[in-house]
């Protein structure tokens, strides 16, 4: 188990971790908190902590998969959780069981925060720069990534919406 002893933000981190889990974004599971201590699930194997993305040795195909997972999680975090990480980089992502786990979410902000888009821009720049340096193919520009994250997916028309068209009404 990992222990966070920050004197502030414990409740916020616990709330944010639970929100990530609600939307299937890989993150440590908050186990217990009291006062200024948050105990989370251990990410690693045989007592060895999972490496940060910066330290992970991934083959090109695995790196591409990691990039796709991270940007999808960033979009879900923004669109469904209503959060921006606000410090996302290769140092705040752990690689465990071939998945990217977001950590250090105590500073994450609501998407309505006055600086949310500035924080998102910085997160996008960090992720873009990291994966470009790794020669990962198909990496979006910072601007493209911001647009990808902030643009809602187009919902499929419901059967009720299409039934009028099918009947010629």
Question: In words, what does this structure look like?
Answer:
- The chain has 169 residues and is an alpha+beta fold.
- 41% of the residues lie in helices and 17% in strands.
- The protein is built from five helices and nine strands.
- The protein has helices at 10-22, 60-81, 116-133, 142-150, 159-166, and strands at residues 2-4, 30-34, 37-40, 44-45, 48-49, 83-84, 93-96, 99-102, 109-110.
- A three-stranded antiparallel beta sheet has the order 1-3-2, with helices on one face.
- α3 (116-133) crosses α4 (142-150).
- The longest helix has 22 residues, at 60-81.
- It is globular and about 45 Å long.
Count, helices: 5
Number of strands: 9
Strand content: 15-25%
SS class: alpha+beta
Order of helices and strands: EHEEEEHEEEEHHH
Mean pLDDT: 88
Q: Fraction of residues in helices? A: 40-55%
């Amino acid at each position: 188990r990992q222990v966070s002893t920050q004197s502030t933000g414990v409740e916020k981190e616990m709330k944010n971790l639970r929100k990530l889990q609600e939307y299937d974004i890989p993150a440590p599971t908050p186990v217990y908190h009291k006062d200024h201590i948050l105990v989370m699930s251990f990410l690693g194997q045989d007592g060895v902590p999972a490496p940060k993305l910066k330290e992970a040795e991934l083959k090109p195909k695995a790196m591409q998969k990691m990039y796709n997972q991270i940007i999808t999680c960033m979009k879900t975090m923004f669109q469904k959780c209503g959060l921006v990480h606000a410090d996302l980089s290769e140092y705040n992502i752990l690689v465990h069981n071939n998945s990217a786990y977001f950590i250090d979410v105590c500073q994450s902000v609501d998407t309505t925060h006055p600086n949310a888009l500035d924080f998102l821009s910085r997160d996008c720049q960090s992720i873009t720069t990291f994966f470009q340096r790794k020669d990962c193919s198909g990496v979006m520009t910072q601007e493209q990534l911001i647009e990808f994250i902030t643009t809602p997916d187009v919902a499929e028309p419901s059967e009720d919406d299409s039934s009028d068209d099918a009947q010629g009404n």
